[in-house]
Amino acid sequence: MTSNGRIGAAQPATPLLEVSNLTVSYQREPVLRAVSFSCPPGAVVGIIGPNGAGKSTLIKAVLGLVPRESGEVRVGGLPVDRARDRIAYVPQREDVDWDFPVTALDVVLMGRYRQVGLFRRPGPRDRALALELLERVGLEGFAQARIGQLSGGQQQRVFVARALAQEADLFFLDEPFVGVDAATERIILELMAQLRRAGRTIVMVNHDLGVVQDHCDLVLLLNGAVVAFGPPGEVFRPDLLRRTYGGRLVAFEQGGSRVVVGP
Amino acid sequence: MTAWLLAPLAYEFMQRALLTSVLVGVICAVMGSYLIVKRWALLGDAISHAVLPGVVIAYILGIPYFAGAVVTGLATALGIGYVERNTRIKSDAAMGIMFIGAFAMGLALISRVPGHIDVHHILFGNVLGVRDGDLWLAAATGGLVLAVVALLYKELLMWSFDPTAAQVSGLPVRALHYLMMLLLSVTIVASMQAVGIVLVVAMLVTPASTAFLMTRRFNAMMGLAVVLGVAASVTGLYLSYYANVASGAAMVLVSTAMFMLAMLFSPQEGLVWQALQRRRRAGRIQQEDALKALHELEERGTRADAGALAASLGIERGRAQALLRRLRAAGLVALAPDGSAALTGAGLRKARGLVRTHRLWERFLTDAGGRPWDLVHDEAHGLEHYTPPEVAEELATRLGHPRHDPHGAPIPSVEGILDAPADRPLVEAETGAEVRVSRVDDENPRVLRTLARLGIGPGTVLTPLPGGNGRVVLRVGGEELEIDAETARHIRVEVRPGPAQGISGA
């Protein structure tokens, strides 16, 4: 690493995602300041922080959805714009128009568009893969349902299936468990574990500290800037959490007991 | 009919008009489908008004009108985006400012141009007056629109459904955005001759909205929109020819009528079907409630007739009579000449099934749901009408096939057999003798709360003592309690104590 970002843990392998000195401003107000971190292949990375900490902005800036004022994002050693085929993104639920006339199968097939290529239509093999993925997220029999007719959890699973259809190496999930049922949360967590074992990396924004603690290999504490980055055991410390969340109360489990951090 | 349709086509102007109408129907429907899902309807309106100055400027410069029209239409669309991005003005106001400004500019220019521009024609169109050039423009636009949509269908679908994910996957979403804006402008200009710039937005929005209500996939929506759009514009053309109605207005009115029909009658979302379904559901629920009420009257040994039914359902006598006639027609109730009603075998089975479902839900809500016993009657009442028999049996299995509800009322068996206990009201029990509470009436929450507080419920062993003055005195577990007569009237007791049932409730 050439930057002066705080890297909490020694990275064992060549990083799959490398963010250095990323700064983002909205109307000259800095939202993210010199954010640096890197993720190895085969890891689940959680980004946590209070509202307005810039969690979603960080993901969007990494993906090039909002302009970067400075800094660099590399995926597998390449600038992110040249590695888009390795990236899949599951948007926040509120960013989707649920009245749109598409079926669950249509949405999953969108994950194949890049591989299918310009001017061509998805073929039988793409359809077969999409149907198989719908089955994997427990939605067999819902292929022809309009997306708006599904429950919140089912909709989220369709989007996860779409991300899987991209056969990406790097997955970004923005608040994947908001407004979903317990079964969906379990299915998505299980899929994340499978992806991780297959050497894929998942970066997710989450506000549930318990989920992050139990399921993430690395945690980024964010509050405009990086407060800490490392394994949950190292960053879930009262002083660091207090610096992340400022005056707010946060609770998490440590060694089987509940720790509440306050101002 | 065929002659009626073919006769006008003897004229060359009608042939041109027909072809133009078909083309306009197609391109407006295709672009309109994107307009609907992208929420660009207002933008379409803005662009269509903003082509006016372009037409006039082109006339002044002596260049083809569509060149000027597309330029000012697009420039205004870009201007709207610019205002939106660089000021605090929101998009609807930005559109209002820019397109009315452009439109006024067009009107101002027209008033100063020497010579004659037919404003009415530009604003409202006249498909009967299209020239060869207009037809070629519509044909070329149609070719362009269909080619782009055919080649980029999946990219455009992704762009319109989920632009963020499209951008992440590397699609040039800005380029697609401007491409669609260009196609929209060209479509509007090409439709100008047929429907005019004021009405064109209806041809864009209405057939596509109608199709939106009736389909669940975008390609089906677009296909249906094309069919409806062509049907509307061709029908409008004939109306215009035969009834001498302004062509643009006729086309728009036909597609508006189609939309109204779809809104009211579309198979899944038609408002008429929804209303009918609500009525049918309300009717079914009332019939089910009537069956239960008749069953209860029979259980109590009270004469069941329209008056008694009206009283227990809280409806008017006339409605109760109509309800009884409907139940008789369904073979669930028999009516005697004296007006008394009795459940038939089928009616009794149905009523017992409803009672069974109701009491199973009460059991479930108290035992598994932890709900207090004074609330579960109403809650179960809401649920029983929506519980298919197999779900009720699933409940029974999970609950271990209970025989009584939380208030002690027996649950009919799945075959419809009801074991009524040999019990009687507490107020009729003789004083001094030990009795066991068999059940309490479940319809008065206040009484149920009182009893729960006193610890009296099904299975409680108690001894009525001499009371008086409207008070009932009981000995329960060595203690003497006093309850009011109203509460006592809701308690039924067995003289010979049966097996304990346990008390449930709050």
Which helices and strands appear, and what pairs or packs with what?
The complex is a heterodimer of chains A (263) and B (506).
Chain A: E1 17-26, E2 29-39, E3 44-48, H1 55-62, E4 70-75, E5 78-79, E6 87-90, H2 104-110, H3 113-116, H4 124-136, H5 152-165, E7 170-174, H6 182-197, E8 201-205, H7 209-215, E9 218-223, E10 225-230, H8 232-235, H9 238-245, E11 250-254, E12 257-261
Parallel strand pairs in A: 3-8, 3-9, 6-7, 7-8
Antiparallel strand pairs in A: 1-2, 1-4, 4-5, 9-10, 11-12
Helix pairs in contact in A: 2-4, 2-5, 4-5, 5-6
Chain B: H1 2-6, H2 12-38, H3 41-61, H4 65-86, H5 91-112, H6 119-124, H7 132-151, H8 153-161, H9 163-168, H10 173-214, H11 218-243, H12 247-265, H13 271-300, H14 306-313, H15 317-329, E1 333-335, E2 341-343, H16 345-367, H17 376-384, H18 389-398, E3 423-425, E4 435-440, H19 445-454, E5 461-468, E6 471-476, E7 479-484, H20 485-489, E8 491-494
Antiparallel strand pairs in B: 1-2, 3-8, 4-5, 4-8, 5-6, 6-7
**Helical/strand content category of chain A:** alpha/beta
* CATH architecture tag of the domain at 17-94 and 170-261 in chain A: 3-Layer(aba) Sandwich
Poorly predicted parts of chain A = 1-11
**Spatial strand sequence of the major β-sheet of chain B:** 3-8-4-5-6-7
Gyration radius of chain B, to the nearest Å? 37 Å
The coarse silhouette of chain B is: elongated
State the CATH class of the largest domain in chain B. Answer: Mainly Alpha
Task: Report what the structure shows.
The complex is a heterodimer of chains A (263) and B (506). Chain A is 31% helix and 27% strand. Chain A is of the alpha/beta class. Chain A has a domain at 17-94 and 170-261: P-loop containing nucleotide triphosphate hydrolases (Rossmann fold). In chain A, strands 6-7-8-3-9-10 form a 6-stranded mixed sheet, sandwiched between helices. Chain A has a 4-stranded antiparallel sheet with strand order 2-1-4-5, covered by helices on one side. In chain A, strands 11-12 form a two-stranded antiparallel ribbon. Chain A is globular, with a radius of gyration of 19 Å. In chain B, 43% of the residues are buried. Chain B is 66% helix and 8% strand. Chain B has a 6-stranded antiparallel sheet with strand order 3-8-4-5-6-7. A two-stranded antiparallel ribbon of chain B has the order 1-2. Chain B is built from 20 helices and 8 strands. The model of chain B is unreliable at 502-506 (pLDDT under 50). The A-B interface holds A 63-65, 81, 84-85, 87-89, 91, 95-97, 100-103, 106-107, 110, 113-114, 116, 118-119, 121-122, 146, 162, 166, 172 and B 37, 151-155, 157-158, 160-162, 164-165, 167-170, 212, 215-218, 220-221.
